[in-house]
Amino acid sequence: MDTVRSLLQPLTHSLPAPIRDIGIGLLGDDCYQALVLDVDETNVECIKLAVSKGLGVGIVGASAIVKVPQILNLVRSRSAAGVSFLSYLLETTSYLVSLAYNVRNGFPFSTYGETAFILVQNVVITLLVLHYSGRGAVAALLTAVLTAAGTALFSHPGSTGLGALGVSAEQLGYFQAGAGALGVASKIPQILAILQEGGTGQLSAFTVFNYLLGSLSRIFTTLQEVDDKLILYSFVAGFALNLVLAAQMVYYWKPATPAAKKPKSKGKGVSSTGSAPSTPSKGKGKGKKSSKK
Question: 0.85 cut: is pTM over it?
């Protein structure tokens, strides 16, 4: 290891300032010194932190597109079959509260950043489901309600305008407890919809399996970086139900099978057995002259 360290240290000590600043911002001064500058592979706590940060950044990056396949499925098919409106409504509400809770508590962005990206995509999906279900007026009303709720959640009491409805930190804590329950409950309508329809319809497998991996990774990052049981328990419960959804995707998976081809006739008047139908012999039974003896 000493040989590897001697080879790496000239590189790690000459990193460009922007990269060095990002590393310090993610790992902190102590762990950056231990892992990057000293190349100390024995510092287990810093290694765990680095793994957690790496997973967090990966989750946040993937979340920017995690529901794009679902959006494309809806737009392409112009149908909301198999997609539960109630499920997305509950999840959107949960994510809105959780985003406000994390921002106002000053938690590291790498531990919740995907919430912001998924929230935006959820709003789009929810509105599309309403649109393709012929409920455009409800979609407009929902947009107004979410805007007002978001303003109130991100505002402190005593703000002006819509922010006058701002909630206190204590109230937001209660809302977060409820949001965790909503996030878990949001999976149940989707699970039931799949059971009732006997298939996954327009539900995206890419989205379901990415959710499963993301929720599992979030359990680890929360344990490492966020000392908040409310958030941890919500991720554990969410992982369990995401596992059920993933199992349903596998169980109801229907690979495309080519349609059976009908046998083609080889010629005019050929029967299904492949032989030509028999025709009466010319003159048989009619006008037949007996031979003279």
Answer: no
